[in-house]
Amino acid sequence: MRFLVLGGDAAGMTAASHVRRAVPEAEVVIVERGRHTSYSMCGIPNYIGEEIEDAQDLVVRSPEEFRALGMAVHLETEALAVSASDRTVRVRDLRNGDERDERYDALLYAVGAHPFMPDVPGLAQYGRVVHTLDEGERVRTELDRRQREAEGKVRVVVVGAGYIGLEIAEALVRRGMDATIVDLATQVMASLDPDMAAHVLATLEEFGVKVRLGEALREVRGVDAAEGESGSPRRICTEVVTDADTYPADLLVVATGARPSIAMARDAGCKVGDSGALVVDDHMRTSVQGIWAAGDCVESVDLVSGGKVNVQLGTHANKQGKVAGIDIAATLRGQEPGDAAFPGVVGTAVTKLCHLEIARTGLTEAQATRAGIDHAATLFTATAKAGYLPDPGKVFVKMLAERGTGRVLGAQLIGSPNVAKRIDTAATWCMLGVTVQRAQFLDLSYAPPFGGVWDVLQVAARKLVRELSLSPAL
Ligand SMILES: Cc1cc2nc3c(=O)[nH]c(=O)nc-3n(C[C@H](O)[C@H](O)[C@H](O)COP(=O)(O)OP(=O)(O)OC[C@H]3O[C@@H](n4cnc5c(N)ncnc54)[C@H](O)[C@@H]3O)c2cc1C
Q1: pTM score > 0.85 for this model?
Q2: pLDDT of 356-401, one tens digit each?
Q3: Closest Cα to atom 3, ligand 1: which residue?
Q4: Dihedral of the CA atoms 460, 465, 467, 471 (nearest 10)?
């Protein structure tokens, strides 16, 4: 019995570890293009910002540790093509170019997503991405070098004002560098409503990040120095040109989102959904027998709108990897399907920028409108600590509920202190279909250092009950 895993990070190694434990007699083989396994991509901005000195600190479990558990881990080995009829995968050893076929009885396709590169002259040549630890290390090495060489401040342009671009820009300013974010969108963080995103923008600008919104990238200019990584020329960015301005730059980071990496699975016959990601059932089985998929490359059910979405988050990749591992272990043993099922997502996400904790779950107003859900929203400012305590801080609260039923559709919280993890309560409401009428009475905790007698989410629920003319209105 041979279990082959393509992609050695969150989803892949979670499944591999489960199968290793549950089916000790199975051969578990991992094919990973990079030099690391099981690392935290989420910590890359902290590493780039020198908060973490050694990239190895982001590695949760090294290839040697997995090998010690009896798995075969092939690093710097790229999967090229899957043949579902032969149950083989063509792979290439990137160190010497040798190709071979790896056989499987069960295959987990967990190669994640790849950075989206807009078609702009010079962008692919001179832009750097931070989508794997190897790439994060290359950006950090180049930044360190530029800092040693530069006479003034190192100037970095970050294209893309999503959470990754913003986290990196903040980290660069913390390092004393000059960071400019450029985005075609007219707001930062498209995962928030514009009225909430405005608070993020104000804080970043106050911190020293330059943000240029509504600007279209036209060209990236640079020079090719003689020596570079692995004998190729070292490509150095010099200028980033938009339709509004030209920005001198020593380094360009491209953070314009990522697309699910589906090509090999699609070519092997696996169905691709409208979201652009692989279709899987709740046991993470693709439409092709013997092939499972998990993580950033698959689509999930949006439990609020009922649609299918591709949400690229580590939290889902780990759970989906576990579910796939349980089902694959059962299959290898010839047993009934595994009893774990991945239910879907509600888009819960948190981040921290400067002093601001930023959290969201469920649908934004734009998403609710697109899904055709008639809704009302409430928006207000409060504190997430008793107002009479010193430095009570501030929290901006937004919540949406469905007209007629009162079902909680989504929430966004921005502020400090005690803000980010509060979203998990709202996420539970969204996931379980709790109404605002019910939510206002739920038994939530209270003590002055943590909030008011009515939690800010329950204040939002009360406001929505009144707004939607539901009862009981408190
Ligand atoms: C900078 C950054 C910050 C993030 N912060 C957060 C956060 O705070 N919270 C959160 O929940 N999520 C965060 N994420 C997202 C999270 O890291 C991903 O959702 C998660 O890692 C996805 O896991 P995965 O196993 O599906 O894919 P990946 O982690 O991308 O792993 C896929 C692996 O497949 C390998 N691979 C790709 N193609 C091939 C091939 N052809 N052959 C062999 N191997 C291949 C890759 O090298 C990679 O190691 C962040 C992502 C980034 C980039």
Answers
A1: yes
A2: 999 999 999 999 999 999 999 999 999 999 999 999 999 999 999 9
A3: 42
A4: -160
